[in-house]
């Protein structure tokens, strides 16, 4: 296990260093992701210009959800982003090389292609979540839990991507259309789930449980739900989702057929 971790770390570090050599790409990536987050925040400002709250959530409280979603997305892009290339690799036969490495295929794949624009999402999300907690004068414990919830969010989001990617082993095609489903649903988690119809609420709590890392902890932090168990919901759900994703990946991999020579 220790040797595997060393290989994962060496692979991630080498990939990140290779990316950082392109400094212009690094700064443009950060600028682009930051602008996208600010554009979404601008829309939120327009909404609160027309109303005082969203289903009982004030502007700083919704900004907390925005920040958590941005950090969850950024963490996934930094550590686990390679999953987006799997449909193309299946078609081209490039997935064969994963079979010869002396490590587990899924973790090795995930960490071997970090995206530089992830830093923009991570920094923007941290600033938004921090501003919200400061504005609402939240205690130190809430500040300490934010990284735990954000990391859990990255794992939950990545697990959803892996699960949907596993469909590409059966429905072969070079495009990542199925991955847009969990990606698009992640954007909905920036808002209180109570504003959505019941079926959307159900999906984002139970089926693709993004609400576990921002809405439920946020509801506890803001005093909208009293159960202290909500503090631990995110890491527990993250472990469960990661296990399901690994099972889906293993089943999909058994259906993989190389392109041959």
Describe this structure in words.
This protein is mainly α. The chain has one domain (2-254). 68% of the residues lie in helices and 0% in strands. It is built from eleven helices and no strands. Helix 3 packs across helix 7 and helix 10 packs antiparallel against helix 11 (230-254). The chain is globular, with a radius of gyration of 19 Å.
Topology record:
Blueprint: H1 2-20, H2 23-50, H3 59-79, H4 86-92, H5 105-111, H6 118-135, H7 140-165, H8 180-188, H9 198-207, H10 215-221, H11 230-254
List keywords for this structure.
mainly alpha; 11 helices; single chain; 261 residues
In short:
By secondary structure, this protein is mostly helical. The chain has helices spanning 2-20, 23-50, 59-79, 86-92, 105-111, 118-135, 140-165, 180-188, 198-207, 215-221, 230-254. Helix content is 68%, strand content 0%.
Secondary-structure-derived class: mainly alpha
One letter per element, helices H and strands E, the order comes to HHHHHHHHHHH
Radius of gyration: 19 Å
Largest sheet: none
From the N-terminal CA to the C-terminal CA, the straight-line distance is 34 Å
Q: Which percent bin holds the helix content? A: 55-70%
Number of strands: 0
Mean pLDDT: 88
């Amino acid at each position: 296990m220790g040797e595997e971790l060393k290989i994962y770390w060496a692979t991630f570090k080498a990939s990140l260093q290779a990316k950082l050599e392109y400094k212009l790409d690094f700064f443009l990536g950060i600028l682009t992701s930051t602008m996208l987050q600010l554009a979404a925040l601008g829309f939120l400002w327009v909404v609160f210009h027309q109303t005082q709250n969203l289903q009982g959530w004030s502007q700083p409280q919704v900004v907390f959800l925005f920040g958590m979603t941005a950090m969850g997305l950024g963490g996934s892009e930094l550590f686990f982003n390679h999953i987006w290339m799997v449909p193309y690799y299946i078609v081209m036969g490039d997935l064969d090389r994963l079979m010869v490495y002396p490590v587990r295929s899924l973790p090795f794949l995930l960490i071997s292609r970090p995206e530089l624009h992830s830093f923009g999402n991570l920094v923007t999300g941290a600033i938004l979540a921090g501003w919200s907690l400061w504005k609402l004068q939240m205690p130190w414990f809430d500040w300490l839990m934010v990284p735990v919830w954000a990391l859990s969010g990255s794992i939950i989001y990545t697990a959803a991507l892996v699960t949907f990617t596993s469909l590409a082993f059966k429905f072969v095609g070079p495009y990542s259309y199925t991955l847009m489903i969990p990606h698009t649903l992640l954007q909905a988690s920036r808002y209180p789930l109570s504003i959505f119809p019941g079926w959307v609420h159900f999906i984002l709590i139970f089926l693709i449980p993004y609400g576990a890392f921002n809405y439920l902890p946020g509801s506890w932090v803001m005093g909208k739900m009293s159960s202290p168990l909500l503090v631990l919901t995110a890491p527990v759900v993250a472990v469960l989702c990661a296990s399901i994703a690994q099972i889906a990946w293993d089943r999909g991999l058994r259906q993989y057929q190389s392109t041959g020579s």
